[in-house]
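Is this the right way to post structure tokens for a design question? Let me know if I should format differently. Anyway, here goes:
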């Protein structure tokens, strides 16, 4: 007996397009991102996916990707749960800055540490910074300790994993067919756990936009296999492009 779950990073956002650190900034999809979200839905339709429930973040790039994919599947009616714990990792004071320009300024090695290391957080925001999420009504129920001023992947794991274990896993075990639409790093956090990727190896993992990632799980909800739907070479090239976003110009 195995279970299937789809993990989907949103389609290209406007700030992915402009190559800017985004984090909790609520930016829309680009035109290309809208197309990617539709294609993701088509890929799932071609493989006959049917879902009972969807999970996403509180950020419109993931929410809209989910909507567009479900529209292609003609399954827009299913319940959708939005939770901040699936948000992108908070990129602290880097939010808004161009990744390649930051590599010029701080050096590629430093930017790689901020982007991909397990436990080096980007510089934090101050609480009086307009980018601090504490004044945003969608986060009104978060405790001060939960409201980030920055996050490394380890911090993201610390909020994504309890959500996976306490909210999503019971649904899978009950036989519900789920799709999770989230972000590059909230999904890296999950994949790190699922595949038991070490703190050093996780540096090399990049997740492309808008390509459904299928996991098959055994009865203990441990992965048996995973693959990107569609052309594996295209997924590989897209992941490579993500890795290279913070090269100096
Ligand atoms: C990107 C990921 O998040 O950036 O916050 O800039 O998945 O929501 O587009 P997403 C961001 P990198 O960690 O790949 O630089």
């Amino acid at each position: 007996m195995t279970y299937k779950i789809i993990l989907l990073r949103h389609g290209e956002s406007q700030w992915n397009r402009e190559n800017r650190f985004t984090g909790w900034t609520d930016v829309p999809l680009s035109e290309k991102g809208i197309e990617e979200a539709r294609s993701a839905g088509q890929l799932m339709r071609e493989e006959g996916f049917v879902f009972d429930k969807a999970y996403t973040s509180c950020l419109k790039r993931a929410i809209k990707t989910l909507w567009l994919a479900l529209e292609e599947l003609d399954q827009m009616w299913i319940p959708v749960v939005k939770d901040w714990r699936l948000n992108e990792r908070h990129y602290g004071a880097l939010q808004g800055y161009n990744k390649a320009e930051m590599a010029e300024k701080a050096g590629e090695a430093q930017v790689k540490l901020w982007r991909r290391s397990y436990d080096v957080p980007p510089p934090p925001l101050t609480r009086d910074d307009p980018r601090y999420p504490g004044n945003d009504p969608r986060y009104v129920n978060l405790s001060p300790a939960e409201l980030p001023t920055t996050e490394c992947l380890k911090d993201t794991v610390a909020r994504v994993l309890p959500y996976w274990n306490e909210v999503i896993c019971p649904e899978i075990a009950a036989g519900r067919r789920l799709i999770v639409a989230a972000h590059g790093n909230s999904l890296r956090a999950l994949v790190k756990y699922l595949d038991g990727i070490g703190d050093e190896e996780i540096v090399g993992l990049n997740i492309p936009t808008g390509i459904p990632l299928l996991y098959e799980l055994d009865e203990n909800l441990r992965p048996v296999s995973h693959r990107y739907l569609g052309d594996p070479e295209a997924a590989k090239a897209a992941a490579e492009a993500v890795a290279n976003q913070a090269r100096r110009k």
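Format looks fine. Someone answered above. Worth noting: Residues 3-51+58-160+192-212+229-246 form a domain with the Rossmann fold fold (CATH 3.40.50.1240). The chain has a mean pLDDT of 97.
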